[in-house]
Specification:
By secondary structure, the protein is mainly alpha-helical. It has helices spanning about 1-25, 30-65, 70-105, 110-130, 130-155, 190-210, 215, 220-235; strands at about 170, 185. Helix 3 runs antiparallel to helix 4 and helix 4 (about 110-130) packs across helix 5.
Length: about 270
Amino acid sequence: MSDANQNNSLLSNLTNKIKYTLFKATYDPDANKYAEQQAQQQQQEQKTKEETNKKIDQNSTDSTTDPNKFNVSRLVKKTVSKTLSIILLGLFPFMAIILAMIVANEMIIYSIPIRVIFFIFVFLICLFIPPISIVLSIFYLLKGGYSYYVNHMTNNPREIMPTIYNLLPISVSETYDIAWYNPFGYPKSIKSAEQLPKTMKKYMEDLQTSFKDFDTVKNLPIFVENLKTIQTNLSKLHSPPIQNNSTNMTTKPTNSNENPKNKNNENPK
């Protein structure tokens, strides 16, 4: 038992001796003081930096939030924000009107009710379903690019994009003197007036081409009669409305100096 206590005491004394020797060898009052000064200096610099940043943020916040102080950055941000809001607000309605106009003019080969229905349908679907508006815009952009290529860079020009006669062409005019604010009258120019019969002729030719047995049945009496009816309707589709001449008829006024006959067709005595 005494041997075990003696061994523990020896180990403890050795450990203490080592700790003391290491402490004495490494202890330096000047080094410890320098370390404390460095730590205090870093804390002071960090505190000063935080206070400076806080003052800068406070000044920036005051100049931005105070409506009585002019701030260029705030003015630019507001202007850009308002401009973007207005553009985004009117972008899709504008696209819907343009796409509806293109489709309505492409339907010029059909009757007026069909043009009106397609115009309203395309406008509403593009206005309330923006992805359709985007897809349709891309389609007509590609179609317009192809039309430019065919008509300006090849030797076989032809009509690919529809001719724009007006916003909604439903009122035929004998003259081209259509007011700029009239969205319904057409044609508005000599060029569009010359293009209209070409478009109708091409439509008729496409109808005949799509009917594979046209050459076989074109001489049959029933088919000839129906074909004449179709051709007549197409030729009258863009004719100006006939003016009613009944309003121009006037009745001969009664001369007050003449002696009217009485009811019994007898002259008065």
